[in-house]
Amino acid sequence: KLFKEGEGTFVPAKYNQTYVGGNVVKAGVLQLNNPAAVDNASYSMSNANALNPLGVSNARPVVVMTNAVYDIYGVYDSYLVPVELAGGTLRNTKTMTNWDWGAINNVTVTAPGSLLDVPENTVFNGSNVDLGGYELTVKLYPDRYLRMTGGMANGTFNIISVGWLVFNGSFSAPTVDFKVNAATYMNTDITVRDWEMVYDGASKNGSGKIKIGGVFKPSANNHINHFELQDGATLNLAGRSDLYNATSAKTGLTLGFAAN
Questions:
Q1: N or C: which end of the chain has fewer CB within 10 A?
Q2: For the segment 8-23, what is each residue's pLDDT rounded down to a tens digit?
Q3: Which stretches of the chain are DSSP H helices?
Q4: What is the pLDDT of residues 175-187, one digit of tens each?
């Protein structure tokens, strides 16, 4: 088993090591160079199934403890290494340019206080992300985006700082609550449980809509376009907002009003 302890950054360089037991980041930063540097697992989509959508066998996870950081450093296939956030931080400090592969994926949250920190443009392709019933805090940065496709399950995705949250592919998270203090753009329909809009600035209007199964709470000033309340959902106007193209999936009723 590999332990990263103490301050500073460690970048494993040698590939296909044969140690067993995985990787634990106790302190400082473990920075990814290549998935083979921390994991000698085999991957084959022919092995994929509902319980193992990535076709992973003999994987060695990276466990990130409180006050520790795992930096995937823009490695497009970093999703091949399973990540367990046990109160630590998953970070990307290098811009990703390959849209075909998701770097943020194969992640399980197992403790409170876990953080997703994305100071550079980052791809989230969450076909296998489980929040474990916890709240994952997400830190975005001005003029940087987190591009979302796939989905996630079981918890709260809390974006605490302003950047761009971009949905540009199929995304389903019917058991996840979103708290969004970020500008949004969606070019596809997305499915969530609760959606609370904290951000008061301008967002862009793509062709997609937010399908909300729980509670929708818009912010005071952000103009929310194209959302759809599913059967049994609740619209909470305590914060007051201008609403456009709001539809009830049950009745087809277009609300289209400005609340005071």
A1: C
A2: 998 887 776 777 777 8
A3: none
A4: 999 999 998 888 8
From CA 231, how far away is CA 144, in angstroms rounded?
Answer: 35
**Long-range contact pairs involving 207-216 (C-beta distance under 8 Å, separation at least 24):** 208/167, 209/245, 209/247, 210/186, 211/249, 213/174, 214/177
The DSSP annotation for 86-145 comes to EB-EEE--S----TTS-SB-SEEEEETT-EEE-SS-EEEE-TTEE-TTSEEEEE--TT-E
**Burial class of residue 17, CB neighbours in 10 A (0-12, 13-18, 19+):** middle
Q: What span, in angstroms and rounded, lies between the C-alpha atoms of 25 and 41?
A: 19
Most confident of 89-98, 133-142, 206-215: 133-142
211: enclosing H helix or E strand:
strand 210-212
Distances 119 to 110, 224, 255 between C-alpha atoms, Å: 23, 26, 38
Q: What is the pTM of this model?
A: 0.85
Q: Which pair of structure tokens corresponds to residue 152?
A: 């996630």
* The two structure tokens encoding residue 60: 């060695």
